[in-house]
Amino acid sequence: MAKFLAKRALSLIFVVIGITLIVFIATHCLPADPARAAAGPSASKEQVEEKRVELGLDRPVYVQYLDYMKGLLHFDMGKSYKSKQPVTQEISSRLAATMELTVLSLIIFFIIALLMGSIAALKRNRVIDHIIRFLSVGSMAVPPYWLALLLQYFLYYKAQWFPSGYRLPAGMAGPDTVTGFYLLDSAIQGNWTLFALSAKHLFLPVLSLVIGYCGITTRMMRTQLLQELRQDYIRTARSKGIQERTVIRRHAMKNAISPILTMLGMQAGGMIGGTVLIEKIFSWPGLGSYALEAIMSMDLLVIAGITTVMAVIFILINLIVDISYVLIDPRVRLS
Amino acid sequence: MKKNLKKAAAFVVILTMLMSLGACGKSEDKKEDKKDSTNAVSDEDKTFTAALGVMPSNFDPTNLVGAGDMNASRTCYEPLVEEVRGTTELEPWLAESYEVPDAKTYIFKLREGVKFADGTDLNAEAVVYSYNRAMAFVSSISTLVQEIESVEATDDMTVTIKLKSDNSGFLYNVAKIGIISPTWCKENESDGDWAQAYCARHSCGTGAYQISGYEEDQYYTMEKFEDYWGGWKDNQIDTIQTLIVKDNATQIQMLNSGEVDKLQIPITENLDILEANENIDVLTEESLQTNIFTFNTKKAPFDNLLVRQAVTLAMDYEGVKDNVYNGKATVPSGFMPAKFAEHDDSIPQQSQNLEKAKELMEQSGVGECNISVHLCEGSDDQVQMAQILQANLAEIGITLEVKVMPWLSMVEENSSPDTAPELSALNMGAFTGDSVFFLKQNFHSMYSGQPYNWSFYENPKFDEAIDKATATVDEKEKQEYLNTAQNILVDDCAALYITSPDSVEAINNKYQGFKIHPLDYYYSIRFYQISIGE
Amino acid sequence: MMKTIKKYFFRDIPSAMGTVISLGILLFMIIGPFVTKFDPLTVDMGAKLVKPGSAHIFGTDEMGRDIFSRLAYGAWYSMGTALAVVLLAALAGIIIGGIAGYVGGWFDNLVMRICDVFLSFPQVFLAMIIAAAIGAGIGPTIFALAVSWWPNYARMVRGMVIVIKEKLYVESAKSIGMHPLRIIFTIIIPQTMSMVIPQITMGIGNALIAASGFSFIGLGAQMPTPEWGAMISQGSRFIFNAPYYVIIPGIFIFLAVLGFSLLGDSLQEATNPELKNL
Predict the structure, then answer these.
(1) How does it sit in the membrane (chain B) (predicted)?
(2) Residue of A106, A171, A184 with shortest CB distance to B219
(3) Is B411 on the interface with A (CB under 8 A)?
(4) Residue B346 sits at the chain A interface (C-beta within 8 Å)
(5) Cβ–Cβ under 8 Å, residues B127 and B113
(6) Can you list the domains of chain C with their CATH numbers?
(7) b/e map of A97-136 (b: 16 or more CB within 10 Å)?
(8) How do residues C202-216 score in pLDDT, each as one tens digit?
(9) Same domain, B350 and B443
(10) Which domain holds residue A115?
(11) Which of B99, C18, C100 is nearest to A134 (CA)?
């Protein structure tokens, strides 16, 4: 286990170096001038040069890169040109919002996919199987951002059942920060009004993400479970007279879930990116729309910071997935 | 299965904890701010709710990065002289009176009894500090203070500003420099940064409202400053809440349903929904904006005056007005918007004359050609204008290619005539009320290849008229120079002056006293003037 | 012949649906521009936001352009983008994955680590940066998506190559001194096609969603290009009084993705019969 973790940590460092390098090279090849962006649109040429020196952008790219990496060791990602705030602070205040959306959607669609996939597999070729298969293919084909627009149109504008967006009603302060997840924090503090409100605000964005992503997982769950049910050991177990339900629970489910978890890890990454669109539609104060603003205004260190953080989270999720294999099935060896 | 569930649950918990690590960076003082804002939400009408598309990156009076940043900063901080809302005229503000002995010297006598939000008094030292701060680092208002030679406190309540060269329009710049509390700034400084980091998210000016809380990308709140020098009446607003709503259609819908009281976006579409709503007043005013396509006058075919004239005559101005802006626009007469008092009203409006345009094209001997226009990303009106022009130019044998680009790339390519396209779209709104500077910045040769003389227009006669208008303090003389300059721009077709869109704003009519202000790109509202009910 | 067609394209109801919908979209692309009497770009301000009806079957947009005609012409942009993304990514993936799998050792290791880097890079952010670098548009979208997708194909092909290269016929090709590149591309890669082609077909759908999403946030195709995602983006500004402007282009994306996904499934089942029984 220790060896495995060490190996993973090593690959994490490799990925972080790789990603920051790509970001640095890419942002320094941009045709637009970050010093000009920071100095303001009507600044004169002299003022732009002055700004360049102030921001240290006059130094060679490799010096800037090494400087950045040095800071990264102390979790210092520099300051935003625009707001003068430390990038770590800028990111952390928005990360929780994105994560609440992503994690909640992941959990919900994982459960839905597990249930629907299993039902479809166990009732193979019955009506319910066909319905589930049809729904999952349909879900895969729906563009999530389009779905979000429709949900907003029908459930906010037409029916007035849900708010148009945000985490809470206009200007209402969130619960005191413990995890940064409003739902969790308000529950911890026993503030159930806030809990209900924040759940109501989460509903539409989460629904858009869940529908958009659960199809493929449902399908995979069905396939995996069917494959397991055809394995020899299941037949053996059955022939031994063990109850069908026990067979399914003890053996088939357990083995079918592992590959699903792997995929979930990969999907989490895609989803963090995919929330950009959903965040924009629902005015969700997350990292995605902030990244878009940063790129438009050439806030270099913010761009680098966000991509680094995203990648690290992505890797950590996959690490957790790997570790959870061991928890679910101790026979799995980490290699 | 049960065991598995437990494990799955453990997995979920680990995941959750991991994700929330990111949330630990929140600072203490922000929590206090939050509590303040919840207490005050009690009286509904006393809280004015506005919607803004992007979170301001700064509340600092100096570091104004995006246009939306002005919304808070112009409310919290006040200048020595202020723009009368709805006009470009100036009135004494934190300065009780001022003297301009010559175009280089400005003397301000400060108002007595003005307090900053931290309880300290406004005095000459505070003004000197604020100006030094504005000059200390490069920011978007650097251009306004770059010609200052010195700022001195003549006595405790008098400030003298000396300029390097004559500029009779300098008072317009003064109206943009907010005065900040030096005591508070020095307390919150870190590494000699003039408290830039702290000021970005807090405020301490003399303004009627001060920042009281915010949540990144969600909202920020301004609370009334009890000791404001103007005093308070019962029917004024206590709290201003600005929500960040990223989607335009949603903003309109929220105004319509009463969730917000005012929008901070120029409204061009969905107007019919708002006009039909009896709780909402839709206000329309002429603006200080001219939307132009700059001709690259250093490159064929627009180095040829005849071709520029032909294009100017080919454009369907009425079509743009009616179709792009639903009739809520003015066909311009020259570059300077007619709302400027200094506008020369003898200049005729632009008009289409395709026959004449074809003749001029023939005379020019240029023949059929391909040109391209570059537009700024996210500007739908520019796309529509370009499409109309495209159809018009096809009639005189010019093929127009339309390309949309990021704003910063446009700035970059327009730094040299070789990289600039034949046409570049610019929606030029006045930032200060200085009409001389409005012309100068776009067409003076010293700005060639810099923002925003993207025409690379160089004409010594125009330069001379502008320089003289800048230097003189005599109003009549100034007007004569300005008339000359305006006419030169029309005769030379320095750019294609397409339209002056009206500013359209909508506000819930339970609030009175709101005036559309044509400067600051419409982002500065004097909330102090707004009252509830009659 | 008929049997082969049935095996690949009309196996069962979903498979037939996939084939029919995909064909329908292709037909719409080809015939649509001839059927409509409207130009997709011509502005007609007199007919702004006309509701779907007899004059304009799918209505008009905010500049009076016919939505049916824009969808028909836009299909070329949307489908073309999706196809280009998948083909580019697959091509790069096959070449890189093929060589890495065959050569093995440190080179394989390096390639896989590079794949990790690209896979951990949220593709939307990558696309944002690329769009900022070379400007938003269809070209940058294709480039950005292909750059972030090739590792998927590279991994898949590499895995298969590792298995195939142990086969006897590969060994014998080696023993007669065939050049390794020739072995990879004439003997091994064709063997992987049965897996790769269904993946490509299914990938078209995903690429379509991703590319139209880029247009939606303003990084992809720009107005007035009638790309479907850009149309939804533009329409979203009028959603409260002209919902059809958002709904109709979305239905086209939905159908296209559905069609190609089902078709991909069908091809996969046909080429890998062991999946059939599931």
Answers:
(1) Lipid-anchor
(2) A171
(3) yes
(4) no
(5) no
(6) 66-277 (1.10.3720.10)
(7) bbbbbbbbbbbbbbebbbebbbbbbbebeeeebeebbebb
(8) 888 889 998 898 888
(9) yes
(10) 94-328
(11) C18
